Structures are given as structure tokens and as C-alpha cells.
Amino acid sequence: MEYVSTRGGSRAVDFEGALFSGYAPDGGLFMPQSIPLLDEATLRRWSHLSYPELVKELCSLFIAPELVPRSTLNDLIDRAFSRFRHKDVVHMSRLKDGLNVLELWHGVTYAFKDLSLSCTGQFLQYFLEKKQKHITILVGTSGDTGSSAIESVRGQQSMDIFVLLPKGLCTQIQELQMTTVIEDNVHVFAAHGNSDQIDDVIKELFADVDFSRKYNLMSLNSVNWSRIMVQIAHHFYAYFQCAPSLDTTPLPVVEIVVPTGGGGNITAGCIAQKMGLPIQLVAVVNSNDIIHRAVQHGDFSASEHVKATLAPAMDIQEPCNVERILWLLSGCDSHLVKTLMEQFTASKSLKLPEDLHRKLSETLRSSSASDEDIVRAMRRCWEENQCLLCPHTAVAAHYHYSQLDSCANSTPRCCLASASAAKFQDAVLRAGLVPQLPPEITALTAMETRCTALQLGEDWARVLRERVAAAVRRWEARRGGSVPPGLQGGGGQVITQG
Question: Which of 113, 338, 359, 423 is catalytic?
Fold first, then answer.
């Protein structure tokens, strides 16, 4: 299995190359050169597997055994899921009126990203231990990615992670889950800007080929293929849990409703479709509705401003993984994708070609939800089921309720639950409900915190370059047996709260 850039300007790489690259050198995203097609017999056999077993089967299709032997792969995935609180790792809640909610948030940080990032962290450590090298991880986060990425690599001497969060645009709990991790290899920055501005500076550093190579830069955002690969399992597990029977031919269709921000999870669903899984995908968004407009009208254009909503992890106007979807639907036409993405980068505006828009609207349904819609869905789910939904999951529930109320669709449906409601107290209170906080989250407010502020007008790229260089010097000094004065610790301001 080799991986190629969606823009066609980079040589093919193996899984290790894609894992350590993030963005391809030509600015594109890595995708498998071919998508395995599963027959109905395989799907029926897989329908009896647990979630971890599905992850193992799927990863084995995309990672050559010469790189990671199957027994080792199984061990890495078992280790990745060892810290999850639920015995099944994920859990399907079957609620009133056909509302099936697949809870993907039983990991350390109470977010679905723990699933893919815990595996990715294990894959990274496996290769780094073999080669005795150091990497620098750059992560921009709109909420949950940062804390999940930190937990996946914290304390690892062969990796330094630099996380940029948008100050004031994450919830307090999301921010504390990042700033309370006091480890030498963890560096958190609170940027006075939005998620798209953070992505811009990260892209700038990756585009500096000399800097990127010198410091072994990589990303754990959903640009990283490893995350997409693991997330394919969400769709297979959801399908097998909700399909009425696999004894029929053709196999029944299940509708999977995906809260969508950067587009990683919906991309994984598109790949699952290509693999032969009979699912209908629905991308649901909040008021930042660029994906909804692209599906409905072929209008892939960023709005003038990102709108702050009750579902902050979806407050994104430049969903990078749409590039992967367009590449898939265009028949892997890298020349077309490169042209389209360069146009979007230059103008933030793009009208999809008619044929490509038609394929997109055939592949995806879409819906958007306002804050009022989110609140109503959260309240209804509680009143009917005594189940608290996070605001992102409520965007999916809003779609379910709208279909239910209009009697529009009798297809079995599964809503992917991306986070625990415990992380979003403001939204829970806005819905007139009472937050339920586990002790691990309550304890955060009394813990020591550390982060560095990035002010508007400051040269964020320069600050990051300097801090990355210092971290690598510290690692090199450790290998030599001593750490020079001034290079101890992760840097940043330390504040003791409570």
C-alpha cells in the first residue's frame, strides 16, 4: 500500500512516510493509491467483530506487514485503547424514536479524537524507537484535537508537541485539558485569533521545506492520514450495530450522521463507502456552513468571518479534508484538485465544477443547525431519554429529529457522538439543563497550568520557530547526557490556580 498526494506533485510514500509527513511536500494530503474493496462475505464476517477488532482489520489493509507485523499492530492498538473507560471502547446508545447515538468519547479527554490519536501516538512511538530519532509535532486545535494529541504523546522524549489554541474560543474545560499538562515535551500556545488563522501559520511552517526537514515537523491534525484511517472503523461499527439484518442481498443501507468541522470523520465515511460499506452519509454542520453550501449548491467559499457557536470544534470555514473528498470523487484527478485548491487558497472562494458537484451531492447529504436548533435538540433528547448530548452531537440529533418530524426517511440511522456533554457546560446550561461533571474534569480547575500567549500583530511563525529550535536543542543535549542552562522545561508561563 502506497500513498500519493491529492495534488500529484510528490512521490509516493509508504505508511511510515505518510504518518510522519502530515501535509505532502506539494501542499496536498496523502491518500491511499488504491482503496480496498470488500465483498459481502467479508462484511458479514466483520459484523461480529468488536470495535478494537475492526480497527485492527482495517489498519492491516493500509499498513504493510513488512512495516508493522500484524501481531505488533494488534499489540499497538490494544495499548492505545487500554486507557479508555468503557469496556467496549465505544458504546451505542439506543434512544427513543430510532435515535441511535454511537458514543465515541470514552477516552481520556472525553472526545472522539482520543480513538484515532491514541493509535497514532502508538504508531509514532513504534517507528521512533526503531530509528532513534526526534520529531516536532505542530497542532492547531479548535477544541478537542489539542488535548487528545497531547495525551497521545505526553512524556515521550522522542517527540515535542506544539499546540496552538484560539484563546477564548474553546470551552474552559477544553483549554484546561491542554494547559494543565505540565510535561517537558508539551508546549501550549493561546493565540489571540481564530482556528483558520492558526492553520495559516502552521501551513507556513510546513511550507518552509528547509525548516520542516531540519526539525522533522509533522502534524496530528486530521490532515494526518493515520487519523482518517482509524476513523474509518467508526462507520463500519455504526453500520453493523444499526443494520437490521445482513442476511439479505443487497445488504441494507444505514444512514450515518456525522458532525463535521474539518471534515476528517466525513472523509473516513467516504472511504468506507468506497470500500463497499452500504452507508448513506450526512454531513451536519453549525452556522459555519461551508460544507453544507458545497453539497447543496457547489459553493465552496469561506464566509467573511468565522461565527462563534455553541459547537466550537465545528467553527471552521476552511475544512482541509474536503480536498481528500474531491480527490476521491474526481477519480483521483490530482491536476483538477491542485487547480481547485490553489484557487480556493488564493481567493477563499470556489465554485465546484458541475460534474464534481453532482458527485458530491450524490455521495453526501447535508444539513446545518443554528444555536437555537442545537439547544432544542439537547433539551428534547434529555426530556425524552434523560441523556445529555454535547452541542456537536446535538447538531446530528437535530437532523434526526427533523427527519422524524417530517416522516422523510425510514432508513436506520446512527448519529456519531463526538464528545461528552461534560466538556460543554455553557451549552448544557443554555439548554436549561444541569451539567454532569465527572471528577476528572472537576479536578482540572485546581491544577497548575502552563501556556504562552500569542498576541495579535505578533509574528507567530517567528515565535514558533524559536521555540521549536530550543526544544530540539534540549533533546540533543539530553542525548549527550546534559541539558544546558535555560533549556529545562517546556517553557511558557506557569500559573497555579485554585
Answer: 113
Radius of gyration of the chain (CA): 22
Contact of 158 with 121, CB cutoff 8 Å: no
Higher pLDDT, 100 or 315: 100
- Cα(293)–Cα(270) distance, rounded to whole angstroms? 18
Place of cell 457557536: 309
Written as one letter, the residue type at 422 is A
Does 132 have pLDDT greater than 90? Answer: no
Note whether 468 and 215 are within 8 A (CB).
yes
Query: Which 3 state secondary structure label does DSSP give 81?
Result: helix
Cα–Cα dist 10/337, whole Å? 14
Q: Which among 200, 135, 137, 198 has a CA at the least distance from the CA of 166? A: 198
Has 113 been annotated as catalytic? yes
238/256 Cα distance (integer angstroms): 8
Cα 356 from chain centroid (whole Å): 25
Q: Closest by alpha carbon to 361, among 298, 412, 410, 316?
A: 298
CB 426 within 8 A of CB 475: no
Using 50, 70 and 90 to split pLDDT, how confident is the model at 177? very high
- Please state the separation of Cα 216 from the chain's center in Å: 22
- pTM for this entry: 0.91
- Cβ atoms of residues 257 and 235 within 8 Å: no
H runs (alpha helix) in 243-370? 264-274, 290-297, 322-329, 334-347, 354-363
**Cis peptide upstream of residue 36 (ω within 30 degrees of 0):** no
What DSSP letter does each residue of 97-123 carry, written as one string?
Answer: GG-EEEE---STTSBTHHHHHHHHHHH
Residue whose C-alpha is closest to residue 433's, from 370, 493, 380? 380
Whether the Cβ atoms of residue 284 and residue 393 lie closer than 8 Å to each other? no
